[in-house]
Amino acid sequence: MRVWTRPTTAPSSVDLGVNTPGPGFLDATKDVDCDFRLEPIGGTTPKFHCTLNGDRVKVKYGTGNPEIPAQVAASRLLSALGFAVDRMMLVHSVRCHGCPPFPAQALECLQKGGRSSVCLEGASPSHVVTFEGAMIERPFPGDPVPDAGPPGWAWFELDAIDPEAGGSSRAEVDALRLMAVLLAHWDNKADNQRLVCTPGRLLPDGSCRTPSAVLHDLGATFGPLKVDLQNWRQVPTWTDPQQCRVSMATLPFNGGTFAEHAISEEGRQLALNLLRPITAAQANRLFETSGISRYPSVLAAARSPQSWTDVLLRKIDAIANAGPCTPAAVLHARGE
Hints:
The protein has helices at 67-81, 103-111, 116-119, 170-183, 229-234, 265-275, 280-289, 305-321, 328-334; strands at residues 31-37, 47-52, 55-60, 87-90, 93-97, 128-132, 135-138, 143-144, 193-197, 212-215, 245-246, 261-262. The protein is of the alpha+beta class.
């Protein structure tokens, strides 16, 4: 299983103020038209599926939905650093053809056994509902891994990655763990991650050579109360900076599937090599254009992108000032 690929563009050269490039790229200033799909949808925030230029995509909407700016900012940053994430693209608006006035509530109504005539009242092929400031999800390229068992992967399963079988190194896995702590990604149940077989890795027998471990749902980040500057500032990077131990035990659900871990020196250095080139100007654009600093519920200090940037840079400094950590080979010999 692979968790990281060296980025083709240096992180210092990435414009974090625009949607992540790739197939199906959408400009954040554009209005997008799509056709509503009558499909069940999980989770607790407003969303629905629709067809956009022949592709099935997920739309999240709602000006008071904190998951939109959180996912946009987190996915842009992680993608720029080389980690596998679904692309979360802001658009000026989504014009949904055939949508009921409140699609999430309509879908929930149907899932609870409501009559279509009641749940979908107001919907018709000619009816268009516009959602401003919506987010469109573009999945990480590839296919679901066949015969991989239950969907998704839990963070404790990263311990089973074997570099000798083509999986990621301990350094790469530890760098990913540090990024999860930096973002306070506590809602990390297996459903919020996916295994994907990227093009070229499918074997003749139908199995996948070194699938990619994709981060799918990063909505509960920059908190832990989702886009909450004060609490994000207070979340410690380390439980023990001398021994380079990380934990999410103080976060909701005791950190979910993220168990306490010792970070290797190689992992700390890789994370630093990726994060240090990010400039304050880049980070300011990230927090401004993702909507984090404009989210309606943030306090006055959090209205400034620089306030968020200061916390990010402070967390990077905390990674730099820790250790030196134990080498990966020594941790492996200890069974850690």
